[in-house]
């Protein structure tokens, strides 16, 4: 049962038509951006096409958004700029370009993200801001440019450099994954894993059965930096910087700031940061800008997410302890949205 039926969409629409609270209606508009059918389809897919469960999931999402003022998060800059630069240097994610079908291509430096320059709330804030900017600015713009609904993205995950010391960050990564699973379901069309080290096959073997089937089908492990395979779905200019040179791996310092899509100097992050600053200035007369993180209720990880995190941790520890490998192992973490 992989296709959303028109009847399910009609039932979902009828349930949502009963929502009359203005805050919920307003935040729902920020979620669907005019693409109701696609939005209903995402939530139905996330709940195995059960209309009642999908409706509950969407209502829980809307209530979370209202209670945590998510609609205002794009007017809450992380200041000063150097603090945000620290976040960008340790939470490696960026927009490298677009696929030939118009989907945004997000690069994620899984292995080299250290999450050690700020508190957990700043990293969650930054992650949600990128999600919201993607959904409220990037995807609507792409839809207009390509003349069709574009409501999902592609992610290229670079596995270079995950160290055993990063195991302490699995809890944070699980929180971020849970935020995505519950509130931004089915926003990723495909995951492409590149620069996968020898340990990857062992981790993937034990993690893969724990993933839901729809997530497993999205994951493709590419050879080396994945350049040749990725060029089948995107132009060279849209390749993440770590995919452009075979064997180069990923490094936050390997490219200049304008080419390294992780860097605050990259045009995507400059546009995002300037957008947030402009939005904050619009609201400044109402509420002065204050330094400090935007606190969001951190969800309890679902049983599945906890099991995956524990399995990854156990497998990496097994390699570290059993094989005498030092603090330089590579491994895997997938955000299963």
Automatic annotation (TrEMBL):
<dbReference type="Pfam" id="PF00650">
    <property type="entry name" value="CRAL_TRIO"/>
</dbReference>
<dbReference type="InterPro" id="IPR036865">
    <property type="entry name" value="CRAL-TRIO_dom_sf"/>
</dbReference>
<dbReference type="InterPro" id="IPR011074">
    <property type="entry name" value="CRAL/TRIO_N_dom"/>
</dbReference>
<dbReference type="Pfam" id="PF03765">
    <property type="entry name" value="CRAL_TRIO_N"/>
</dbReference>
<feature type="domain" description="CRAL-TRIO">
    <location>
        <begin position="80"/>
        <end position="240"/>
    </location>
</feature>
<protein>
    <recommendedName>
        <fullName>CRAL-TRIO domain-containing protein</fullName>
    </recommendedName>
</protein>
<dbReference type="InterPro" id="IPR001251">
    <property type="entry name" value="CRAL-TRIO_dom"/>
</dbReference>
<dbReference type="InterPro" id="IPR036273">
    <property type="entry name" value="CRAL/TRIO_N_dom_sf"/>
</dbReference>
């Amino acid at each position: 049962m992989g296709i959303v039926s028109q009847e399910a969409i009609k039932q979902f629409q009828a349930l949502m038509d009963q929502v009359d609270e203005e805050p919920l209606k307003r935040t729902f508009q920020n979620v669907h951006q005019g693409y109701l059918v696609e939005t209903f389809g995402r939530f139905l897919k996330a709940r195995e096409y059960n209309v009642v469960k999908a409706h509950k999931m969407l209502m829980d999402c809307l209530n979370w958004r209202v209670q945590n003022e998510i609609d205002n998060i794009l007017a809450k800059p992380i200041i000063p700029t150097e603090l945000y630069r620290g976040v960008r240097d340790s939470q490696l994610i960026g927009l490298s370009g677009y696929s030939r079908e118009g989907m945004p291509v997000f690069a994620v430096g899984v292995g080299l993200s250290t999450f050690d320059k700020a508190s957990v709330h700043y990293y969650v804030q930054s992650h949600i801001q990128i999600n919201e900017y993607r959904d409220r600015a990037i995807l609507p713009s792409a839809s207009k440019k390509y003349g069709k609904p574009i409501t999902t993205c592609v992610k290229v995950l670079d596995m270079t450099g995950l160290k055993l010391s990063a195991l302490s960050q699995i809890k944070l990564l699980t929180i971020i994954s849970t935020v995505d699973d519950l509130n931004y379901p089915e926003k990723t069309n495909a995951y492409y894993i590149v620069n996968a080290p020898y340990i990857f096959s062992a981790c993937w073997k034990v993690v893969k059965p724990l993933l839901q089937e729809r997530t497993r089908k999205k994951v493709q492990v590419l050879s080396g930096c994945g350049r040749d395979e990725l060029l089948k779905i995107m132009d060279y200019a849209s390749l993440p910087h770590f995919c452009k040179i075979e064997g180069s791996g990923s490094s936050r310092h390997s490219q200049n700031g304008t080419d390294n899509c992780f860097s605050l100097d990259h045009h995507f992050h400059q546009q995002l940061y300037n957008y947030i600053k402009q939005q904050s200035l619009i609201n400044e007369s109402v509420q002065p800008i204050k330094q400090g993180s935007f606190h969001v209720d951190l969800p309890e990880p679902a049983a599945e997410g906890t099991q995956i995190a524990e399995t990854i941790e156990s497998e990496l520890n097994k390699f570290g302890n059993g094989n005498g490998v030092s603090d330089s192992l590579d491994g895997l973490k997938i955000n299963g949205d």
